[in-house]
Amino acid sequence: MIRWATSEDAEALAQIFYKAVHEGPSLYTQAQRNAWLPEPPGGADWTARLADLNVAVAEMNGRPIGFMSVESGGYINLAFILPEHQGTGVFRRLHDRVEQWARQQGEARLWTHASLMAQPAFRARGFFVIHHETVERNGESLTRAKMEKTLT
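User: That's the sequence. What structure does it adopt?
Assistant: Structure tokens below.
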């Protein structure tokens, strides 16, 4: 089931984010993962960050297993799935809900900064790489790609 997040989801989404980065298959080193997300996000800042986004949540047996956010302008900021549910179609279902929202808002495109692991999933949903880039996080360099999908 895909639904929109509520403020009560903040802790569960923080754990999904952390587990996806630290326990899932990765092309990043452990040092890079630690620099990207040293601990699960939390507190008022995390709750406020989520409140400013439209967050689609995938649930199984009443428990969140993945999420994807979208904001005005079609930017997908967060897209994370528990490692044990990756490759099962959860990403596709989350993306479809986010794309539906974007089309209803009249957005011309969806775009994101995709990690090395997320790029194949975004490609499979029709995104293409605009350019690759490197960002610095806590003394580590992480490669990612700016990707886009035209909706019109």
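The domain at 2-108 is CATH 3.40.630.30 (Aminopeptidase).
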